[in-house]
Amino acid sequence: LQDAAPTHLVTTAELAPALPDTGAAVLVLDDPDTERELAGRPDTDPTDRDRGGPITPGHPAYTIHTSGSTGRPKGVLVPHANVIRLFEAAAAHLDFGPTDVWTLFHSYAFDFSVWELWGPLLHGGRLLIVPHTTARTPREFLALLRRERVTVLSQTPSAFHQLIQAEQEDGAEEPLSLRYVVFGGEALEPARLRPWLSRHGADRPALINMYGITETTVHVTHHRLTPAAIDHPGPLSPIGT
Which parts of this chain are annotated as the region Disordered (predicted)? Predict the structure, then answer.
């Protein structure tokens, strides 16, 4: 809130007391006066005149902070056009569609969540929000992937290694519906994927290593891992171009 310096805060009666005093005007959505005011408003989308001007692709879509690995985390303003560019570029390599089920595994404070949120929404798929405790319990998460027939999974390598271990310990033969596993957020060691490769192969799901930084909007490189890259990895994992 200090970085954003908002002029208005939109909240609920339950959450309002927890907000710091920023000097911003506070709109409490479930306040009776607010509810009466909203009930008299149109239920259609606002026009450019209502907004005070047109929204363009260059307008900010969100502010998200860097990891702070070189100091204090910095807020990055990311425009709508960058998010569209992300998925237009991905379309040349990945075939997403309305039958896909994506997980929202990561915190919305981590830019991997932008990929997880807008991927299904832009392609007409289904977004599955993973409960906090499930995301931190690999066996529960594995069961959720099977039960909900998840097809697109985005993971940091460290989280995926825990999932591999959970599947090995589980021993069940029930198949997964995954089409893609997308790695990001950390360096990937291909050799550690051998247990997964021996069970699932490298085609379904396809294993995709992607790389990017907050300022470039999630991912900017793409590399599809092959059995050769996993069985005989070099000193560094390819991150593509």
Answer: 31-71
